[in-house]
Amino acid sequence: MQTDYRPVYVVWELTLKCDQRCTHCGSRADDARPDELTTQEALDVVSQLAAARAQEVVLIGGEAYLHTAFIDVIVALKAAGIRPTMTSGGRGITASLAAEMKQAGLFSVSLSVDGLGRTHDLMRGIPGSFDSTIAAFGHLKAAGIPIAANTNINRWNQGDLEGLYAHLLAQGVKTWQVQITAPLGRAADRPDMLLQPYDLVTLLPRIAELKQRGWKDGLLIMPGNNLGYFGPEEAVLRSQRPGDRDHWAGCQAGKFVMGIESNGDVKGCPSLQTSHYVGGNLRQDTLKSIWETSAPLQFTRVRTVEDLWGFCRSCAFGSTCMGGCSFTAHSVLGRPGNNPYCHYRARTLAARGVRERLVRVEAAPGTPFDNGRFEIVEEPLTAPEHVPAQPQHRLRVVQ
Fold first, then answer.
1. Which residue of 187, 197, 247, 389 shows the fewest CB atoms closer than 10 Å?
2. In Å, how far from its chain's centre is CA 341?
3. Which residues 6+ apart lie within 8 Å of 227 measured at CB?
4. Are 230 and 317 within 8 A, CB to CB?
């Protein structure tokens, strides 16, 4: 059994302050938290990450570049032998900032792209957001920083996938991560945005087809942790090269993945619900102590198939999959271990002539990384399709 658990891959929210107000943001990013780590405290965290043998740290927000310690942290990570990378909406990445990030030692940047122009701007809530993101790709390339893209797929933007593929290819993007929008944070307030589990039956083959095109075109498409699971396209989706047979190997939160919130709270994964999974705070405890002794960071190390429930408890892939993405399952049903967003599950039910539909029964409280609660309604596969109302969110200028 693997016991050398360490935070190989760390996602660090430097600040919750953001220059966009995205409709699907899990952290509900807006203003900075009132108690965010200072520059000196952040630099001390870098030292602790080095001692913990971290290999890569992804700086996020909000927008990481809005924290006063942003460049200092990049420099410190690079000096400590840790690869500094970044995920960003890109709105504030200018040519001069890109050059400064490159000089500091930033290894790569993944920009979040939510669809083509109109859809992206709708989801970001800001006119011109798509254009600023595309401009950021250019600034980063000009500075010599490798670029990637990431997209949350939902009912608002799934129709843009093929067009977005072509657009990202034209920008010179070499890696594209796709995942589904989970009902976390602001997305929990918009059930009409969310995919239904049965949507995966038609969505996953489309993504697999794009993946195979990407192998030929030089664009590697990889699924996020909450997309896929043992359908017929699983090997294609999870493999980096044609012919490989990779597959989902279970949630790595607290095993080799760690999340740090901007006030020093530590979780096993950056997207896990704050109210349930924070294992300690770096102002009160050391990173080593939190990682090695905190129960909320160890739940994936100790759980077994006995902790699964519902469909996942009887699934043939249960001992490997362990219910898929933990934060996604929790965001739907209030606890992990039973995940309706599963391709294999959706196909299995479809073969029986039924499908699962999610109905929200409890709203989210409105805090960062929160969730409401949904119930599963099982209905005939031929039941009339529920067509959500068109989104009415107005675009606004955010200063």
1. 389
2. 15
3. 153, 178, 179, 180, 204, 207, 237
4. yes
Nearest to 16 by CA among 254, 177, 186, 182: 186
Rounded CA gap, 64 and 84, in Å? 12
How many Å apart are CA 388 and CA 369, to the nearest integer? 24
pLDDT over 80 at 395, yes or no: no
What pLDDT is recorded for position 384?
Answer: 81
pLDDT of residue 287: 97
In the predicted model, what is the mean pLDDT of the chain? 94
Contact call for residues 291 and 278 (beta carbons, < 8 A): no
pTM of the model: 0.93
Query: Residue 388 has what pLDDT?
Result: 52
Are the C-beta atoms of 296 and 267 separated by less than 8 Å?
yes
Q: Which residues contact 91 (CB under 8 A, 6 or more apart)?
A: 19, 20, 63, 126, 129, 132, 133, 136
**Phi, psi (degrees; rounded to nearest 5) at 297:** -90, -5
Nearest to 237 by CA among 255, 224, 219, 256: 224
